[in-house]
Amino acid sequence: MRIAVLDDDLLLLEQIKGTLECHHHVCHTFADGGSLLKALRHDTFDLLIVDWHLPDMEGTEVVQTVRDMSGMQLPILFITRRNDERDVIEALSRGADDFMSKPLRMGELVARTTALLRRAYPESMGARMAFGAYSFDADKRSLSVHGQPIELKNREYELALFMFRNAGRLLSRTHLREAVWGDGAETPSRSLDTHMSRLRTKLELTEDNGYTISAIYGMGYRLDPVGASALQRPPVQQRSAATETLSG
Predict the structure, then answer these.
(1) Do the beta carbons of residue 38 and residue 6 sit within 8 Å?
(2) pLDDT tens readout for residues 9-18
(3) Is the dihedral angle over the CA atoms 34, 40, 45, 48 positive or is it negative?
(4) 87 Cβ partners below 8 Å, 6+ apart?
(5) Three-state secondary-structure class, residue 45
């Protein structure tokens, strides 16, 4: 999973980053609230870890802004040296999903992070997954549509699985490249566009089959459930942006 960590303690940032990456997450760090909010204008994450006291604003302001400006439903873990009951209530009322007091215990941090991700993205945890007409077997790395197997290249399969696991979510180009090609991979932007176009054709991603792919200008892509497929999922709100449906 892709996690953003906001804290002005650079040593703690590195400790959190190292711990989470040892558990197979991709971790991006930010030392002030402004830099994280700026990044969220063009990038996406699966979870935020936010400190209370920051050099430019309070962490509660960051959490409130994230919720207000975009309607993002991503889970947020709040960390702080403040542990009074009133502080916990304020953090949760501003939009945080969980709360940890410093000094952090890294084992607990991993456990709470895992629990938040499991609740937020339950379909990412199973080996066999069905999305309307589309069925995945992660162990066999196979995909079928209406029961018919679809032949996909390795990265096409990885991209299809990632998109369906995150159906309804806007995913930035960087998010997608890191998830499919790996952290730090130098992947031409056009390669992602080409893979998306191939998936649309091979998987027949149309309203008739319950899913469509949209390109969001300046951000990335979103796989949208439509019709009966949309009724199976809770609505996901995202920051409004110009949307362009792929034409192949």
Answers:
(1) no
(2) 999 999 999 9
(3) positive
(4) 52, 80
(5) coil
| Whether the Cβ atoms of residue 139 and residue 125 lie closer than 8 Å to each other | no
Phi then psi for residue 245, to 5 deg, are -75, 135
Contact 7, 48 (CB under 8 A): no
Whether 49 and 16 have beta carbons less than 8 Å apart is answered as yes
What is the DSSP-derived secondary structure letter of residue 53? B
**Residue type for position 75:** P
Lookup: tokens for 73: 């439903």
- Contact in structure between 49 and 79 (CB atoms under 8 Å): yes
Least confident span in 84-88, 147-151, 218-222 = 84-88
Work out the pLDDT band at 94, boundaries 50, 70, 90.
Answer: confident
Tokens standing for residue 97:
């999903």
Report yes or no: 4 and 26 within 8 Å, Cβ to Cβ.
no
